[in-house]
Amino acid sequence: MASYYLLSDGFGFSTVAALGWSSVVPALRTVWGLVRSRSVNGLALLMLVVNAVGLALSAVAGDPRLMMAKDSGVSSVVGVAILLSVRTKRPLMTVGLKPWVTKGSAAGNAAWDRLTAGSERFRRAERRFSAIWGTALLTECVVKVIGAYTVPVDTMVWLGTVLTVVAILAAMVIAGGSCADPMEKMVAAEAEAERTADGGGADAGSGMPVGAAAGAAAAVAS
User: I need a surface site. Which of 13, 22, 35, 174 has the fewest CB within 10 A?
Assistant: First the structure.
């Protein structure tokens, strides 16, 4: 979605060209996931399907207002899909959230998996992150569809971009502050607790538990 708006609004690509070129990355990610791990990146696949539908509809949308409404309508599929995924075990926005929170480290990923399995608070934050993004994107699309038929076309051309930027920034700020930041702290705390448990359970070099080592030292001293 970001590449579509960058190409269309930032570089002046036509709708068809922007949709086509912005499909390259999702297509590559989908194919790479199938080849490497025999799994499908849900968000990448969704963007690929949405772009394909957008390309097909672009061939029949001749009216400028219909074109703007069509863009918003197709994009709204992303928001709806993200909201529906909140009810699943792996919300769609998790594929982007997890690397951000864990910093891609093995300890962070392990901490994430433990929290996902055992912490309802963590799972709620994960679902809420996707819910905020889905709501922001869907709201933006609804406003743009209304604007496409009520606001002058020349105004809506630049106003649509403003609405998109505002929606994305709002989602980043709200979801980041209320979900991503607390989750990052929980992952860091969990990873640190695991590291401490692994490294602090025995006296270094002796293989003896810390408590036993302290008791032995006290006995020798007495």
Answer: 35
